[in-house]
Each structure stands twice: as structure tokens, then as C-alpha cells.
Amino acid sequence: MAVRTAIVTEYFAAASDDVAALALLEGQGPSAPAQGSGEPLFETVPLPGIEPFVMLGTLHHLLSGRPYRECAADARHGQVVGGADEGPWVVTVSASLVDALADASRGRLADVAGRWARTPELRRQPHEHRPERLASAVLALASLAYRAREVRHSLYCWTRLPS
Length: 163
Description:
By secondary structure, the protein is of the alpha+beta class. The chain has seven helices and five strands, in the order βαβααββααααβ. Strand 3 (80-83) and strand 4 form a beta hairpin. Helix 2 (54-64) crosses helix 4 (95-103). The protein is globular and about 40 Å long. The two termini are 18 Å apart.
């Protein structure tokens, strides 16, 4: 039986869409070392297999209590900033999800992560989406959202298909 490899995703913060698109220059993503410094281009939260369209829309719905359709209709939800036809791509994360993540308590985030892990799209995913691992990832994403909002940055997802 072949093992499916999840879509590769890294969430990161940037000052603008143009700055976020810099993650596409080398094709290695936002955590790739910047030329000359050896430091990552951006602070990232890797969330393997958590694509920024349906799955992040579901997280937004669970966290905010707003209908999924409303969350997914946000103009900044999953808007492609740049990328080639075959990827990789940089995609926006809505400001309302950033606010919901940044404002949620640790307990609320852990509860939502547990419910999110039981959704159909995540139950079909690999072991890294067990509730305890997903809770840790959601906490990291919320922390990134908080720091981004403090400096008036937006969140983005760099994504590519598995090799």
C-alpha cells in the first residue's frame, strides 16, 4: 500500500503581500535560509497537510463560531498572492482568523484543536493530526498570529505539492 504524502505547508507572517511573495524566490519556502545571513527568511509554523482553503476555513469556523461559508467567503481567505501554475504558492490567511487565533485563550485553542482533529478532512490525514499534536500546532499558529498582529503584519501560507 502506497503512503500518501501530505501537501507541504508553512504558515508565516509578513508586512505585505509583496514581502510575502519573496518566499517564492528560491522555491524552498519561507523557512529557507536567506542569502548571506543563514537565518530563515521568515518565522514559520509548519503544518503539514493543513491547506489554507478548506481546512483553515474549518478552523476559522470552529474558532469563531461563524458559519463556514461566511469564513470561506472572506476576501483574504485563501487569496493567491503568487506562484507558478504547478506551485509553490503563497496564499493569504484572513485577518478575521488571525484575530480569532490571537484573541483565543490556550484552553479555547486546545478545545478547538480537539474538535478540528475530529473533522472529516483531518480524520483522513496522517498521524500528525492527532488531537495532542494538532493542539500544539494550533498554539504555535496562534502565537504567530498574535505577534504578527502586534506589528500589523498579515499571515500567509506557503504551500507546494509533495515531491
